[in-house]
């Protein structure tokens, strides 16, 4: 009995909808708008010119109170809506299917599922699937798939895939994939992949991969990998790997590896490896390996430092330092070994090299073929040992020389 009653009620409902829809199924009106975000096939731009466009709100609706099924350019609707080209929409809830890009401008909000070649609105919330380009005047939120690209004036948030690119005038947050590039003026947060590059005017946070480069005008924090270069103006923090170079104007903290060079104008702290060179205008601290050179221009190098070539600092080198060619600095402290040459103004600790040249004060031990100290306070072991502050023949001695204050 219940199933017959249910069938009767549903039949009555659909009959009422059909009668109502037939009475007011075709709607026609027009409205004038000033142009805002203008949409072309593969890009969007805004205009400040006093241009206007007209929208024709013609539709055939099977609906009650703008809810049901709509065929045409209905501005407000809930349910299933099908339209050739959207123009001047206001609020659409449900499933919206459009077959072409907006006639002249994008507007309004679509909540739910948006399908078509060029799904477009000021705000796209939900599941947005575009065979061509998805364009949001303000923000795209949810699951966004653009066969070619996703473009937003403000934000892109959620699970985002652009066959060629993701482009945002604000932030891109979530799980983001751009076949060629992910570009955000406001920052990248989450798991981000750009086949060629990730580029942002803000910070890059999370797990980030760029086939060629990661470029940030802000900071770069998290797990960052690039085939060629990681470039940050605000600092790098975390695990950063680059096939060619890690470059930052701030701090480089954590585990940083580069095939050619790590370059930082701030501090470089942690485990840092560069196939050719580590270069910093500030401090280099931690476990640092530079295939050819470790260079700190302004302050110092501290920790375990290894270079096949040269370790250089304009100020201090402190810790355990090993160079295949030369260690050069103003103040050298700790255990220091170089295959050819140690050159320092002051040495405190141990220096082992073919030629140990201390043109200031040596406090500790040097071992080499030739050892030179202008002011010795310790021991020299080598074939020729020169201590300028010793008297007479004791300035130049073979095998061993010493002086204590």
Can you walk me through this structure?
- The chain is mainly beta.
- It has one helix and 39 strands.
- The chain has a 24-stranded parallel beta barrel. Strands 2-5 form a two-stranded antiparallel ribbon. A two-stranded antiparallel sheet has the order 3-4.
- The longest helix is centred in the N-terminal third of the chain and has 22 residues, at 2-23.
- The radius of gyration is 34 Å and the shape is rod-shaped.
List the helices and strands and how they pair.
Layout: H1 2-23, E1 26-27, E2 30-34, E3 37-39, E4 44-46, E5 52-56, E6 59-64, E7 67-72, E8 76-83, E9 91-98, E10 109-116, E11 120-130, E12 133-146, E13 149-152, E14 155-162, E15 165-168, E16 171-178, E17 181-184, E18 187-194, E19 197-200, E20 203-210, E21 213-216, E22 220-226, E23 229-232, E24 236-242, E25 245-248, E26 252-258, E27 261-264, E28 268-274, E29 277-280, E30 284-290, E31 293-296, E32 300-307, E33 310-313, E34 316-323, E35 326-338, E36 341-352, E37 355-367, E38 370-387, E39 396-403
Parallel strand pairs: 7-8, 8-9, 9-10, 10-11, 11-12, 12-13, 12-14, 13-15, 14-16, 15-17, 16-18, 17-19, 18-20, 19-21, 20-22, 21-23, 22-24, 23-25, 24-26, 25-27, 26-28, 27-29, 28-30, 29-31, 30-32, 31-33, 32-34, 33-35, 34-35, 35-36, 36-37, 37-38
Antiparallel strand pairs: 1-6, 2-5, 3-4, 6-7, 38-39
């Amino acid at each position: 009995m219940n199933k017959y009653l249910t069938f009767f009620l549903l039949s009555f409902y659909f009959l009422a909808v059909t009668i109502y829809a037939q009475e007011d199924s075709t709607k026609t009106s027009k409205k004038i708008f000033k142009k805002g975000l203008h949409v072309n096939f593969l890009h969007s731009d805004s205009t400040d010119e006093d241009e206007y466009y007209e929208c024709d709100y013609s539709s055939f609706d099977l609906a009650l109170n703008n809810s049901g099924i709509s065929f045409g350019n209905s501005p407000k609707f809930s349910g299933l809506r099908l339209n050739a080209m959207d123009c001047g929409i206001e609020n659409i809830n449900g499933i919206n299917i459009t077959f072409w890009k907006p006639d002249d401008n994008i507007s309004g909000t679509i909540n739910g599922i948006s399908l078509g070649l060029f799904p477009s609105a000021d705000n796209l919330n939900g599941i947005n699937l575009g065979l061509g380009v998805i364009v949001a005047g303000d923000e795209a939120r949810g699951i966004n798939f653009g066969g070619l690209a996703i473009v937003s004036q403000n934000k892109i948030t959620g699970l985002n895939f652009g066959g060629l690119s993701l482009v945002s005038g604000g932030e891109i947050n979530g799980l983001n994939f751009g076949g060629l590039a992910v570009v955000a003026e406001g920052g990248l947060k989450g798991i981000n992949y750009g086949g060629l590059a990730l580029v942002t005017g803000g910070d890059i946070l999370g797990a980030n991969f760029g086939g060629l480069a990661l470029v940030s005008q802000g900071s770069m924090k998290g797990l960052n990998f690039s085939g060629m270069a990681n470039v940050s103006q605000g600092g790098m923090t975390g695990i950063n790997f680059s096939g060619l170079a890690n470059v930052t104007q701030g701090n480089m903290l954590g585990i940083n590896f580069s095939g050619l060079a790590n370059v930082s104008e701030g501090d470089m702290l942690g485990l840092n490896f560069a196939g050719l060179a580590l270069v910093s205008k500030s401090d280099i601290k931690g476990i640092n390996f530079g295939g050819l050179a470790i260079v700190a221009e302004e302050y110092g190098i501290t920790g375990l430092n290894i270079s096949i070539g040269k370790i250089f600092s304009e100020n201090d080198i402190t810790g355990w330092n090993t160079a295949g060619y030369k260690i050069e600095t103003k103040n050298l402290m700790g255990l220091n070994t170089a295959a050819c040459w140690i050159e320092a103004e002051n040495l405190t600790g141990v220096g082992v090299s073919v030629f140990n040249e201390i043109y200031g004060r040596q406090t500790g031990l040097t071992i080499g073929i030739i050892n030179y100290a202008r002011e010795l306070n310790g021991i020299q072991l080598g074939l020729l040992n020169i201590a300028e502050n010793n008297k007479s023949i004791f300035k130049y001695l073979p095998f061993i020389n010493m002086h204590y204050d």
